[in-house]
UniProtKB/TrEMBL annotation, chains A, B:
Origin species: Enterococcus ureilyticus
Protein name, entry field: CBS domain-containing protein
PANTHER family: CBS DOMAIN-CONTAINING PROTEIN CBSX2, CHLOROPLASTIC, CBS DOMAIN-CONTAINING PROTEIN DDB_G0289609
InterPro entries documented for this protein: CBS_CbpB (IPR048125), CBS_dom (IPR000644), CBS_dom_sf (IPR046342), CBS_domain-containing (IPR051462)
PROSITE patterns, per the entry: CBS (PS51371)
Swiss-Prot/TrEMBL keywords: CBS domain, Repeat
Keyword Repeat: yes
Domain CBS: 18-76, 90-145
Length: 165, 165
């Protein structure tokens, strides 16, 4: 479990954790891959969320997923992208979190993901929590913890017992 | 400044921070972009290091940098990539760190970069430090700090003075 002092300092930056959905580029699962290529080549993220018609989160798509579909044996063919939709290549079973997320889960899941999609109870996409914003909070915590607190190493169990006796 | 207890716990994972150069895909600055496209479409990183003939680090290249050069007004043309080298599109003036890096700098620079190239005194590329490995160390620290230490909030200066008197 994450200790109280570390947790409280990390959560002082909590209101900056979520990048809201309206500021995150996305594509729809039935968009042709040629459209996804255009969007992905213009945004700074290497992966973006895929939504269905009801704005529900259904997966992620990367530039690499799209480019893969352009390759044939000898060359790269843009026209091939018109034959596929985003749903054909997107990554599914992606870790997501709810709006009432726990810091413990965010810290753990961001080891393996560059960002975490946040969804409401109906799976509607609400935004993302990124490693970048978490690392800002970690810098804050690492600098403030020992400025605001005194850290005393715990004695091991045996010595505590001896003192009690 | 990062406090001693936080720093020591983070550095317990120090030997896993560096992913050595031999395990990181790279391209040479004079490679044609068609080669870079092939390499970038096959690796898991969205950006990879660019080296010169002497294995010195000179920049980064992303799949997005390459795809941009394939676009013309109406379509995407793979053959255009043969007219350019990696050096024509790579990102330069990238933050790098030396082999004797400070944790403070790593924590600070990884807010804005997914990974940091590590170079020796001759600018030779030695590997990368990634957000992923740093976040593993942060998870370790966040869980261990209050298990191993007692955290006492510091009194403000006035009350300390009163106690001393």
């Amino acid at each position: 479990m994450i200790g109280t002092a570390v947790k409280e300092l990390l959560l002082e930056k909590e209101n900056t954790f979520l990048i809201p959905a309206e500021n995150v580029a996305n594509v729809m699962c039935l968009n042709p891959l040629s459209h996804a290529l255009l969007v992905l080549s213009q945004v700074k993220y290497s992966k973006i969320p895929v939504l269905d018609k009801g704005d529900r989160f259904v997966g992620l798509i990367s530039l690499s997923d799209v480019v893969d579909k352009m390759f044939d044996i000898t060359s790269v063919d843009f026209d091939k992208l018109k034959d596929f939709t985003v749903a054909d290549v997107m990554e599914v079973n992606v870790p997501i979190i709810g709006e009432e997320w726990e810091l413990e889960d965010v810290l753990h899941l961001l080891v393996d993901a560059a960002f975490l999609p946040v969804v409401d109870d109906n799976q509607c996409f609400k935004g993302i929590i990124t490693r970048k914003e978490l690392l800002k909070a970690i810098n804050h915590m690492a600098h403030e913890l020992e400025r605001k607190n005194i850290i005393l190493p715990k004695s091991d169990d045996e010595s505590i017992e001896m003192k009690v006796i």
